[in-house]
Amino acid sequence: MTNGFFGRGPGTLVLAISWVITLNTMWQMIQLHECVPGIRFDRYYDLGRHAFGPKYGPWIVLPQQLIVQVGCDIVYMVTGGKCLKKFMEIACTNCHPIRQSYWICIFGGLHFFLSQLPDFNSVSGVSLAAAVMSLSYSTIAWVACLSRGRVKNVNYGYKKTSAADYMFRVFNALGQITFAYAGHAVVLEIQATIPSTPEKPSKVPMWKGAVWAYFINGICYFPVALIGYWAFGQDVADNVLVALQRPSWLIAAANLMVVIHVIGSYQVYAMPVFDLVERTMVKRLNFPPGAMLRLTVRSAYVAFTLFIGVTFPFFGDLLGFFGGFGFAPTSYFLPSIIWLKLMKPRRFSLSWIVNWVSKMLRLLYRKRTIL
Q: Which residues contact 40 (CB under 8 A, 6 or more apart)?
């Protein structure tokens, strides 16, 4: 919970500014998808290659995009295991407790099967279920916090800690915010699935979908952040559902909804990685395309993210670090840089000023996070 690190005022301001900035950069990405007549940039690194040249473009974009996609999948792996564990603890109080690592393995086992779905279109149903579950469990979280009321002796002040630890907490909170707006890493790949003609370009329905997604994002994150902080103050947990106990059946249902949500989200972020690795193995290593290649590549990727999730169950605590390297560039300042380079807005125009401000703010955040 970011407000637990920033406080009510700064935390809300950072959330709001990030929402506005990333909505703007999302619009830029959607417009840039077909910025050259007759060409569709179906992958982020294709757009990077066009903007920065074939030599440097993929190296500027691809490593950061992979950090986002693989990082999100590892976090989802850990989150899925944690919420499965919480669900069973509430639903079956007499059951023998199982270690969290085993629950992560159970959650990961589902993806060995789901990862064999061929493309984005085949996971659309899973993605829709994930979106519905996200709205549902977020609503349960803030309504449960509101009905529970404030904890005894709630404290809204900043936690007393060392300067170094305080800075780490602040940048970890910033990393969590950038994690919430990580969809830019897959937006072009999703837009590539939409038919496009000169009369009906794909950017029109894609932008409508993005606006709705951001609206749902806002009504999910803002009430949970604000009401969760009101209820628990500086002691609010990263996952507020873990701190809630009653009504038990509702909290159990919310944790199960989180599981369904991260199942769909894992597949959305994994699909571009599958496509990249499979294309590389076919083109450069002469592997024959087909079911065997898909089974090998996708199972290996799921096994890798599962291994990291089990080995480092605190992976989510590193979001500040990964936010500086991957989440912030792909969602905040890389779209602004590419927009300035390709669209060349008039100097000191509103578009020029907004993109330069966004670029400099996120570069400053990235530099301090890395340091």
A: 33, 34, 192, 196, 202
